[in-house]
Design a protein that fits this description.
Length: 503
């Protein structure tokens, strides 16, 4: 493994010294070799800084790191989340009926199908009733996926509207409910643990706000806690400990979307991800979209020392993708020890930021083109769209294509220094044929699997998140102090801030 990393890092340096644009002439098969078509997506990685040598070293690294065996362990339900001794089986949630997944040897597919049938029946019941708005309460993985899906797919005049409340800042709750009628609102409280401070506070607020009108449902892996909260058992939709929060949108966590979008759309979303799963488990490493996307990112992160990546969807409907990927990638792979507890040998997850194009062009693109750091970009674009005024979609597409070209080709020969664009700045292009539920499902699954592959290369457990615990624990104690409890020992800055807030 160490040798494969050495070869990869060496090859990356050699490739990094060549201009990306020069590689097209040197490698006649470049475009075809670095473009993958899968499940309604076209992934073009030809503007990434790998020459043939670096590409081959990258594939060799993936093979040596055991990506294929790790993938097998994931899909066969071994306890790949070793620190929590859990299987990780989000693919089981989107597999068509009749699949035979097991989690640590226990069959799970029948329970998945049963859960899906309950979700569907409930979604259909709500859609023909009096409910006009679903108020989805949850945070992190219990929020970001459904929010992304709704923004991406919501109709222009939805039959049922969907609102989200995540933050424990009451301003979000107040804004989401200001114009709602409790009598026509369904509250769906979503929490894997059903103990998360923010979600429980908002769920209590929502229960009070409903005042016995409207309806209340819950989604949780802790059914007992949801029932204890007061939700009737037939209104609690379960999922399982082998579904990670940030991988959970395919489970009952997606219930609000299934209601507001209709079952057909939700099923299409699952189907797109299942198609991507089929590709991930069967395509050779050299032509495997999540593997190649992971390797391109690792090439920049480790081979060329680039700690930041931008994600820029040229689709207003996908503007929440950067926020979704922040949790997916940074919570999964922001780790400093390996799965067996050793310090990692090299840097792990890059920081991810981004916004919708073209808006980003008028904000942070200056730095992408002329800043002192090279920040690789993932562009996401949609080939065909018919929303809005005629002609605008071509403008949007022209901009995304132009930005990727400008970053790579640049304008190195300009006479005035401030007009010089060095170029040679890498990007990936993910083109969706259309923004359908299926394509969205495939896109999200693409990023899930690429995050997993990176975790395998870095030898980390991508499926725990102990880094969020300490702050949560301290907040519990500080809350008591703010509410008049006894002062605790703190560093001087923290103590002064608490004292200031209590004044
Ligand atoms: O931020 C930590 C975290 O545990 C996430 O991983 C999770 O998605 C989120 O909190 C919400 O947790 P829950 O669904 O249990 O409320």
């Amino acid at each position: 493994m160490a040798d494969a990393w050495d070869r990869f890092e060496q090859a990356a340096k050699v490739a990094g010294a060549r201009r990306i644009v020069s590689l097209f002439e040197a490698e006649p098969d470049r475009l075809q070799r670095l473009t993958v078509e899968v499940a309604g997506l076209t992934l073009d990685l030809s503007k990434q800084p790998w020459d043939r040598g670096a590409f081959e070293a990258a594939i060799d690294l993936a093979r040596t790191a055991g990506v294929e065996a790790a993938r097998e362990r994931l899909f066969t339900g071994e306890a790949v989340n070793v620190t929590e001794d859990r299987a990780v089986l989000h693919p089981a949630l989107r597999a068509p009926d009749g699949a035979k997944f097991t989690a640590r040897g226990e069959p799970v597919s029948a329970a998945v199908e049963e859960g899906r049938a309950r979700m569907r029946a409930f979604a259909e019941e709500i859609r023909v009733g009096d409910i006009r708005t679903v108020l989805h309460i949850g945070i992190g993985g219990s929020d970001l996926g459904p929010r992304l899906v709704w923004e991406a797919l919501k109709p222009l005049s939805p039959k049922i509207d969907l609102r989200f409340v995540a933050n424990v800042d009451g301003a979000e709750f107040a804004q989401a409910t200001a114009d709602l009628d409790p009598a026509t609102t369904l509250v769906v409280a979503v929490s894997k643990t059903f103990t998360t401070q923010e979600t429980m506070a908002n769920a209590r607020a929502a229960r009070e706000w409903l005042g016995g009108k409207g309806q209340f449902a819950a989604v949780s892996a802790n059914v007992a806690e949801a029932v204890k909260f007061g939700v009737p058992e037939d209104r609690v939709f379960a999922f399982w400990d082998w579904v990670g929060g940030r991988y959970s949108v395919w489970s009952a966590v997606g219930l609000s979307c299934a209601i507001a979008l209709g079952w057909e759309a939700f099923e299409g979303f699952l189907q797109g991800a299942a198609d991507l799963d089929a590709h991930f488990t069967s395509a050779p490493l050299e032509a495997n979209a999540p593997v190649l996307l992971a390797l391109a990112h690792v090439l920049n992160r480790n081979g060329l020392g680039r700690p930041i990546r931008a994600v820029v969807p040229y689709a207003q409907r996908l503007r929440l993708l950067p926020a979704f990927l922040q949790q997916l990638e940074m919570e999964s792979n922001g780790k400093r020890v390996t799965a067996d507890g050793r310090p990692v040998a090299r840097p792990t997850a890059a920081s991810v930021f981004g916004d919708a194009g073209t808006n980003g062009q008028h904000a942070f693109f200056q730095l992408l083109h002329q800043g002192t750091e090279v920040i690789p970009v993932d562009f996401i674009a949609v080939a065909h769209a018919d929303e809005g005024p005629a002609g605008m979609h071509e403008m949007l597409l022209a901009n995304v294509i132009a930005q990727a070209e400008a970053l790579m080709v640049g304008q190195p020969d300009a006479r005035e220094p401030h007009r010089v664009f060095e170029g040679d700045r890498p990007s990936s292009m993910i083109l969706l044929d259309r923004l359908t539920p299926e394509a969205l499902g495939a896109l999200v699954a693409l990023y899930e699997h690429k995050t997993f592959v990176e975790g395998v290369l870095w030898e980390i457990n991508s499926f725990d998140q102990f880094g969020v615990e300490l702050g949560k624990k301290l907040a519990t104690g500080i809350l008591k102090e703010l509410q008049g409890g006894e002062a605790q020992a703190h560093d001087p800055s923290t103590a002064a801030l608490i004292a200031r807030l209590k004044r």
